[in-house]
Write a structure and sequence with these properties.
The protein is mostly helical. The chain folds into two domains: 131 residues, no CATH class; 277 residues, no CATH class. α12 runs parallel beside α16. It is elongated and about 75 Å long.
Amino acid sequence: MSIEPNGVVRIAIAALGGAAIGLERQWSGHASGPMGRIGGIRTFTLLGGLGGIAGWLWATGAAPLGAVLLAGAAGIVIAGYVAVSSRDIEGTTEVAGLVTVGAGALAGVGYLALASGIIAVTALLLVEKTRLHATVEKLDDTEIRAGVRFAVMAAVILPLLPEGPFGPLGGVRPRLLWLLVLFFSGMSFVGYIARRAVGQKHGYALAGLIGGLVSSTNITFAFARESRDSPDLSPALALGILSACAVLFLRVVVATAVLNTSLMVALLPYFAAPFLVGTALAFVGWRRMQKSGKQRPEEPSNPLHLRSALQMAALFQIVLFAVYIAKEQWGSSGLLASGALLGLTDMDALTISMARTASDPALVRTAAQAVALGVVSNTVLKAAAAALIGRGSVRIFVPLGLALTAVALGASLYFVR
């Protein structure tokens, strides 16, 4: 049986992956000395290559021989662990050896990208041992419980929910609503972790910046609701909302640059002024937070805020019903009306639809105006949510800041022709 060039490449990649893991084991001192494990760069290179050969044999129809080689490689690793387990029960090196064999087999079969990714992640975990252990030591019971609950919500509950829609008025989409629940609770968790990492005063601002890349509307609802539970955090929450709203303009511009460059160019004159206003508001808020000497508030006991997330998802569904009724009542044939309506709930859907519309050069400007109107309506919705749901600084400064942004955007729509 001859090995074709493609097979040689697969086996070589498998061996190189083993060499990468072995290099780290050798460098970290786990391959030699009184506490030495099963081997270093040479052993792991051979294990990776052996896995690659086994995978190649499996792919070429010699599955029994490939299985024997895999079993033999696994047996060698296990025997190595048994030999040293009496003096040291840590099995990181041996597990890395099994992963190397498995990744090598995947490379031999032809899943080169997957095998390379597994090797890269494994090497990263091994190299970052000290930081990972230090991070785990800082975790408390609250964070562990919240992380496990979120994992169950995302990995167990979400796949079981149907897509929908069910019922009248556009219907209810259970999976979409649960995704919103995951987003709301996830952003609360991100804010909690960010506060632990960079301080409470700046944690929510950082979470707002990150969340604004996904949905500034969801950030506004989630942070406004959190300001009711933690009034002392309202200045930081308000800054997070304003930061997320400023990022919205960048997100839409980047999306249109990818989808339709002509639409992006047409949008820039409308977005310039409101983006500068939003950025200035976020910058001023950040400076005030830095100068503030206010004592840090107490950490919340529930990082996920699941109950609040469920309430926000229900409110969002009500908004979807209202938009559906408005479309049925007045129609959505006009691009500008469609933009104003879609902007209430889904800027991404609006951006995509208008990018397609702008493929007609005669409609580029109208499509850009529709997107800008959608941002206006989206901004008004967020200002109303902050005023009605929020407390403290969120109720006062967010509506004022978003009103200034909406005025700047409206002025751009009026003056730019």
